[in-house]
Design brief:
This protein starts with 10 loop residues before the first helix and ends with a helix. It has helices spanning about 10-30, 45-60, 70-85, 85-95, 100-110, 120-135, 145-155. It is built from 7 helices and no strands.
Length: about 160
């Protein structure tokens, strides 16, 4: 039972979930649930696309280090979105990262959960922000010419 997840996206799945919770409550008397993810799960393709874009931006902008674009985007686009839309995320960020210097925050983005916390809608808005930023600030069109499919295939394996 541990780790079991339910997706509620219809009256039928809602009724099944309520029945499951009632049965658990009857058997165990005390249960605790974590806060649910809201929105549809992100697709593998949006995740793969973001990594194709990060690598392309790093290459085209002669980044000092692989991952610079990813770290920058997570901190400048992902974190503000999640802080604005999730009390828990905002509390955690404020508690653990708020007082770090910028250079340290950028490095911490390698470990701090950002895009993995996003719903499909949030990920789409994030990707739109990333694409707009690189197009307007660096005149860099983020598209895909086969790398996207290769990244999808790699992630599926």
């Amino acid at each position: 039972m541990a780790g079991q997840s339910h997706t509620l996206n219809s009256d039928h799945t809602e009724l099944a979930f309520i029945g499951w919770v009632k049965a658990l409550r009857k058997e165990h008397k005390y249960i605790t649930f974590d806060y649910p993810k809201i929105g549809a799960e992100r697709s593998l393709s949006s995740n793969a696309l973001s990594h194709v874009w990060y690598a392309f931006a790093d290459k085209m902008l002669d980044s000092h280090e692989s991952g610079d674009a990813r770290r920058y985007c997570k901190l400048h686009f992902g974190v503000p979105m999640l802080r604005g839309e999730s009390d828990k995320y905002r509390e955690d960020y404020n508690k653990y990262l708020m007082n770090f210097e910028y250079e340290d925050k950028i490095k911490i983005m390698d470990y701090w959960p950002v895009t993995q916390r996003m719903s499909r809608d949030q990920m789409n808005r994030y990707l739109t922000s990333v694409q707009y930023y690189f197009a307007t600030e660096h005149y860099l069109p983020l598209e895909s010419c086969g790398e996207f499919k290769a990244a999808q295939d790699k992630k599926r394996k």
